[in-house]
Amino acid sequence: LEVAPGAVHVPGWLTLEQQRELVIACRGWATGPVPIRHTKLPRGGVMSVRTVCIGWHWQPYAYTRTADDVNGARVAEFPHWMVELGRRALADAYDDETAGEGYAPDTALINFYDAQAKLGMHQDKDERSSAPVVSLTIGDGCVFRFGNTETRTKPYTDLELGSGDLFVFGGPSRYAYHAVPKILPGTGDPATGLKSGRLNITMRVTGLAD
Ligand code: MD5
Ligand code: FE
User: Fold this and answer.
1) In this structure, which ligand is nearest to the CA of 122?
2) Mapped to the 3 state alphabet, what secondary structure does 116-163 carry?
């Protein structure tokens, strides 16, 4: 379960019913004020993953309230039920009822991976808070590469994440390099509502004030 200090994997944390509800909520956001799209990178590339954000809009290297690189609309509100889900995630991952107290995620990146999508080795450093990141997987599984904080190369550990899995990245693991090198097509349960592909929700604390 504890992959590295502060990095905790809880397989099958979400019930099927919770996964179904999250798929419905994410479909609403994907077709909401800021439609899901492939994020453009500053050097001209485009991510293979499709992303929609709530609370704050992530653009590589900045969070804003409006999606100026998409349609200028303000992103959907971050719902309080998701704050509570994040708090329960920390309590369960760290097996400490108090671990989630005061946790106040204010943004989530909702990433949709089709069978070909990948995410290269990177660190998540655009937040001005070192609070933990809570990651939820629904649908097809993936190979998740958990690296080190010093380099984007070895040593790293490859793990499989499946539908319903929780992963919390806190403490010294908050700034570790990580990647999604491969989706495992056909491994999801269509009963979640997702016929194919992987949905990943990551809650974060931006450290920004309005
Ligand atoms: C994913 N998404 O599985 C991952 C889950 C992203 C992204 O990487 O940036 O959208 S979040 C994984 C994460 C967050 C913060 C720290 C660490 C991993 N880590 O130290 O390994 O689609
Ligand atoms: Fe990341």
Assistant:
1) 2
2) CCCEEEECCCCCCCCCCEEEEEEECEEEEEECCCCCCCCCCEEEEECC
Question: What are 93's two structure tokens?
Answer: 């991952």
Cβ–ligand 1 contact at 39 (below 6 Å): no
Q: Is 202 in the pocket of ligand 1 (CB under 6 A)?
A: yes
Please tell me the distance between residue 2's alpha carbon and the centre of ligand 1 in angstroms: 16
pLDDT tens by residue, 166-194? 999 999 999 999 999 999 999 999 999 99
Residue 74's CATH number? 2.60.120.590
CA distances from 60 to 69, 122, 138, 177 (A): 11, 11, 24, 16
Residue 55: both structure tokens together: 């609370």
In a domain, 210, yes or no: no
Q: Tell me, yes or no, whether 209 lies in a domain.
A: no
Domains in the chain: how many in total? 1
Q: Is 183 helix (H, G, I), strand (E, B) or coil?
A: strand
